[in-house]
User: What shape does this take?
Amino acid sequence: MSTASELSTVRHASGGATDALRRSNLATVLGLVHREGALSRSDLTRLTGLNRSTVGDLVGELAAHGLVAVDEAPAGGVEGVRAPRGRPSPLVRVSDRVAAVAVNPEVDAVIIGLVGLGGRVLKRIRVETASARSVAETVTLASAGIAGMLAGETEIRVAGIGVAVPGQVRLSDGMVREATHFGWVDEPLARMLGDATGLRVWAANAAVLGLRAESAFGAGRGIDDLVYMIGGASGIGGGGISGGRLLTGASGYAGEFGHTFVRSDGRACSCGARGCLEAEVTQAELLAAVDLDSARAAELGDRLAATDDPAARSVVARQYEALRVATRSAVNVFNPSVVVLGGFLAALYRGAQAHGAPDLLGEVIHSSRDGVVVSEALLGTDQMLIGAAELVFAELIADPARALAA
Amino acid sequence: MSTASELSTVRHASGGATDALRRSNLATVLGLVHREGALSRSDLTRLTGLNRSTVGDLVGELAAHGLVAVDEAPAGGVEGVRAPRGRPSPLVRVSDRVAAVAVNPEVDAVIIGLVGLGGRVLKRIRVETASARSVAETVTLASAGIAGMLAGETEIRVAGIGVAVPGQVRLSDGMVREATHFGWVDEPLARMLGDATGLRVWAANAAVLGLRAESAFGAGRGIDDLVYMIGGASGIGGGGISGGRLLTGASGYAGEFGHTFVRSDGRACSCGARGCLEAEVTQAELLAAVDLDSARAAELGDRLAATDDPAARSVVARQYEALRVATRSAVNVFNPSVVVLGGFLAALYRGAQAHGAPDLLGEVIHSSRDGVVVSEALLGTDQMLIGAAELVFAELIADPARALAA
Assistant: This one.
């Protein structure tokens, strides 16, 4: 009986309002398949609350334009999903021919990736660089790497470029307001990279993009109240999700956990103050403590956990205490259900735990401590690229009809 | 022409869906008059987007049940508001006969108020107490004070009791999870006070209620990104508004800025940790520095600003530095447009500024510092009572129809 009324809605689907409704429904379906992976048409019907024939039409439209692929007769029992009458329900997946380019300038390298719709990293290169460089040099390097990466990729449609910047970025136009580790102030990075490549470019703070990636595909999936801190060669960033919404702040610069105060008479920070988390807790010092160079940062957690060297253990203990202080302030203020640690902060946490360090949340106020889970980021070094690609895919998903028309 | 279609909507107002719509419209109108003060019927028409006759019906219904009063013919030119055709538009105000009782237990007193709809404090008493007392003693004291306050008030309808507790409170049932300054753990304060008075009781964290009051009627009016810190005899609390929404956290305990880390090797805090803001910055120490007792805390700001005593100035300088560190961490993480300081923190700020102390935001990262306003709370000692009453009025406003039926 609900089917009858819904069909009558579909029959009226012709005017301006219903066109907006159709675009919104296309976005809902594409967004679900993007985030959830392959879904049966029955799943989509259940998750969207739309009727079967509407979902079928929407999927058909997305498929006809190459945004999703439909597996009409999945092998019996794939994921156990079947339509009510026993016929197999077709599986809908994102197309593997739609991708975004992702760029993540770090202090010692430019990392470039090709990320498929659905958040899968298809290709990844790391171009080592001198530690200080201009925006123009970064754009030139990135453009060369992108050209190389896309050469011969005739099958893939690139929806745009997303850039993850270790600094404050104005979302509206991708203007880098400040990236202290590069010495950049008010640099129009997105416009310059757009001019150089001919592609549309979006840019945002790298840590916030890491959080978006973990929230969509990693340790933060489905978590409404989340504190996220990530460390890299360029320092420590972070972000928060509160009540299911990304914390942005008045100007989009919220989440700078790297500039939480952790030590009186502490080291000078690049921000001009003293005792900030990112001045006290650095990847370079941890790498040096176990004789690793930055290209092998992925081994850091295991090496820190395994070391018996008292000097290295002392560095871990001191840095962990600073992380513990920052986490305590953050959890007391945000009352999250999950704390996600990414990059070298996850390595530091793992190392300290292996040496019998105290609970990261041990000094949080009692009421906010209960049940809080500390989790390592799940997407590893890919999270910045996946997050940067999310900037591009968010635009694509918000209005697939426009992409279809293009 | 829009009037015609809207009239047709009104003509259909009979079924269940339109009853829900009517209740929602009553809530919108009552909420506007509650927050904005007296509004003309033309203002209400413009602010709600409803048509004149619908607004007239809604106002009539609210007035008939004693929730608003209508001044049919305001003295010529009152606030200059006139209907399009030159006839004066009736002014709608909240009734002065609907009120909430507000209770704020502090460590050294129980403060009880009667707060009218619209957030006006009608009566206020302060019952001095011993510094440690049980929940049962607090309920007995509060009940006595409430009985005295309501004696002879035959004209006023009391919609319920709101309690502002300096501690963590579960909103759903007013259970005090933890109030370290009283030594309370898992105390069913709201239920006990309800049993004792026969009135409905809601309870919440005092600082969060202070924030609600300032956000609705004070320094935070219309601000979407706000950090609020307030100090009282029981310590320091706070809250945040981000993107226009109150930060609650996973369990409702967000905003504990009093437990932000500000000093290495600092004092032991009641929470068990060291160096928390509320361990380093206390009203008692500031009062003692200028020889005031707690009953004269309202004079603290002026006294701190005026003092020439080097010892007192040194206390101010040390406490201000701790407040500055906590504010820096908070602004770096939240990127607010306004920081509101309440209670003795406002006094400390005023005192330090008078002695030529550095900018409270001087060490905030550059991008988040621009344009941030530091403001003293505007509602003074009434903010807890007004906030506690908001708990009651929020229920009343959310469904006036139910209140009307009662």
